[in-house]
Design a protein that fits this description.
By secondary structure, the chain is of the alpha/beta class. The protein contains 12 helices and 9 strands. 41% of the residues lie in helices and 12% in strands. Strands 1, 2, 3, 4, 5 and 6 form a 6-stranded parallel β-sheet that branches. Helix 7 packs parallel to helix 8.
Amino acid sequence: MTGLPMIINALGQLDNPNDPRSQAAASELNATSEQFTVDTRTLTEARASGLTAVNITLGYVMGDLPPYEHTLHEIDVWDGIVARHPEDLLKVTSVADIETAAREGRVGVIYGFQNAEAVGDDVGRVAVFAERGVRVVQLTYNQANHLGGGSMAPGDTALSAFGREVIDALNDRNLMVDLSHSGERTCLEATRHSAVPVSINHTGCRALTDLPRNKTDEELRLVASRGGFVGIYFMPFLSPTGHARAADVVEHIVHAVNVCGEDHVGIGTDGPVTAIDDLDAYRAHLAEHVARRQQAGVSAAGERADTYPFVVDLRGVDQFRELVRLLEGRGFSTERIEKIMGRNFLDYARRVWAD
């Protein structure tokens, strides 16, 4: 393949993890968007990587922050970040915005949630979030909430009646229903209930690594059969050892393609482009962060102080080029690679968002 295809990261970060503010945030349970460092290096390397667009996490995920108020504040923060970097960033609210970012060499920023807790008991808040530019809403984090079960909740935790109302509201507002982190029963029930195709923006395949954060073939197949999208992450959950490598990412992509078909699989790395320079120093922050997550009961099975939340040999500014090279080595055609690296997400967005 000559040159990079369109790269759309279905879940990632814009951050320089080497900045002192970001390093301090790495130890905390609830890092806020104000603690991320979107500096010259962040932007230069994101563009140099070939990244076209990325779904970032903002708003309430866990802890004792006021979910609704905190989420609205985080939207304000990111609106400010995008406004300060108009030559590098573009807020994405439509497929046309992604195409504009690709054409102009900017990075499209898609606003997404990793927990719908901020809806509270008022389904009307979905309209507020939509009007503020949110385009992806994940129903649950690892625990159960009032919508349904997370991946670490009991396996039979059902999608609630209110969860169905929220999905209906997300459908009405043309927002993506993301089932990453959900428990199996909630995932299957939400997929069947939604009138619009749903996504699992960052996950792995449980058939290869039997951990709760990974999805069963039944979940993957159902999401794809209804026109949805599945993004494979660059996370430790891809290997039973917890030390996932680039080869593991490729194997999970291959399996997902075999289960879902090549039109429904992409990437959702769950990480930034800019790599951590000093891994030895990072280990101390990581150990503290993992301990806090475990103490708060929000961690997932497979998280340990010795497992990096990224793939060591698939990170940094060349991560997408390296993945393309590895997929070529597995015999994937140029067209299939283009689909996985971005086109499938774009086509899925066309099926959900109303431009």
